[in-house]
Specification:
With 392 residues, the chain is α/β, with parallel strands linked by helices. The protein has one domain: Alpha/Beta hydrolase fold, catalytic domain (Rossmann fold, 3-Layer(aba) Sandwich). Helix content is 28%, strand content 19%. The chain has a ten-stranded mixed sheet, sandwiched between helices. A two-stranded antiparallel sheet has the order 6-7. Strands 12-13 form a two-stranded antiparallel sheet. α2 links the parallel β4 and β5. The two termini are 30 Å apart.
Length: 392
């Protein structure tokens, strides 16, 4: 996020979360924007980095931390970071090559929020950003379980992984619940964070029944091999919102992404749910092949999944754009992306705040392969960090 140069950063150890609640003493450690009626919140233009301690932890036993960028306290972005996954002895042993094993340091988080690493939706002072001026809560990801896990697994004598993503995320949400009473909420996340977003959205919607909740899952379409959930969910001890009517008593080993969206959206009909993806997402396709799927199958399976969710979910939309880029929200491309003649930021603004949800936007046929952005990258006329997805 690009915050003003006067950025103030504080690193806070919230012992209140460890001991089970916030006392009056927590006000002084909560930032500089509180009203005095409860735990303080970060003031607009400031960044608070929180290290809550136990029960949070990262996959290899290192500390977990998260960040809160101050803005309008009535408008919240709750953002789940991506970063791959691991689910068996092989994938969890590859020296962190396919999943992020540690939370970003305080310095790394500050760099993200200053626009040195992340841009796009994180540029909270850009008037063309649909969430400009909002408060943004950034939930890092370091557990290899798409923010759903609650287990410690010894995969081998020298590989033990703490799949603690569910507890980490719920701890952050408890911090939020104590401090904010929002009127508008955007729940989002890129890649693995897209699954964190939908997995925790029902908890957030239940906590804030009167808020306008919008979910946009960025590049996490849930196209997996038939064996993936059977292999990963037991390892992770995946925790899902079983209070949702359509998920109560459900065997999660038989669950698919269509059922997950359909059930959650049905229980919260006033909320809006969406996915954003490219037609040939390079990273999602790569993970699908790593699970044993055929590369050529990913795109048609993704299209069918989006159609199936749409058919049973009146409060669901999607935005499908051309090319292979994985994730949109962290890049400058967020501001320039167009599909089928509709600019993404215009569509997102309407999805968040419009009186009616906008129609689904989707490239069609050959237009899904004609990505002007990647053409600019390959020609050397774009230096956007998202260009890394355009090679080959």
């Amino acid at each position: 996020m690009h915050l003003p140069s006067r950025l103030a950063t504080t690193l806070v150890l919230l012992t209140a979360l460890v001991t089970g609640g916030c006392s009056d003493d927590a006000e002084g450690s909560g930032g500089s924007g509180g009203s005095g009626a409860g735990p303080a919140i970060p003031a607009p233009g400031t960044l608070e980095i929180v290290e809550p301690g136990a029960p949070t932890i990262c996959s290899r036993g290192t500390p977990f931390r998260f960040a809160a960028a101050g803005g309008d306290p009535k408008k919240l972005v709750i953002d789940f970071q991506g970063g791959g996954a691991c689910w068996n002895a092989f994938t969890c042993s590859i020296a962190d090559a396919i999943f992020t094993a540690e939370a970003p340091s305080a310095a790394e988080l500050q760099a993200r929020f200053e626009g040195k690493q992340y841009r796009g939706i994180y540029q909270l002072d850009d008037a063309s950003n649909p969430v400009a001026g909002w408060t943004l809560i950034h939930i890092p990801y370091c557990t290899g379980d798409v923010h759903w896990g609650d287990a410690t697994v010894e995969y081998s004598a020298d590989v033990t992984i703490r799949h603690n993503g569910f507890t980490n995320a719920q701890t952050v949400l408890a911090w939020v619940y104590e401090r904010y009473q929002p009127e508008e909420i955007l729940v989002t996340g890129c890649s693995a964070g897209a699954y964190g977003a939908i997995g925790h959205a029902a908890f957030i919607a239940k906590q804030y029944p009167d808020a306008k909740l919008r979910l946009v899952a960025d590049s996490g379409c849930g196209i997996v091999s038939e064996s993936f959930f059977k292999e990963s969910f037991p390892s992770w001890n995946a925790q899902l919102p079983t209070f949702v009517t359509g998920l109560a008593g459900k065997d999660i080993l038989t669950l698919d992404i269509v059922e997950l969206y359909t059930a959650i959206a049905a229980d919260f009909p006033n909320a809006r749910f969406a996915q954003q993806t490219t037609a040939f997402d390079k990273d999602q396709t790569g993970y699908y092949t790593a699970m044993g799927g055929a590369e050529a199958d990913w795109s048609p399976k993704m299209l069918q999944s989006l159609a199936d969710i749409s058919a049973g979910t009146p409060n669901f939309r999607y935005y499908l754009s051309p090319g292979p880029v994985h994730c949109l929200h962290p890049y400058d491309l967020f501001y320039g992306r167009e599909s089928a003649g509709t600019k993404y930021t215009d569509w997102l603004s309407s999805f968040i705040g419009g009186p009616e949800a906008p129609a689904t936007v989707a490239c069609q046929g050959a237009a899904c392969s004609e990505d002007a952005f990647c053409s600019a990258c390959l020609a050397g006329t774009s230096q956007d960090a998202a260009c890394k997805w355009c090679s080959d």
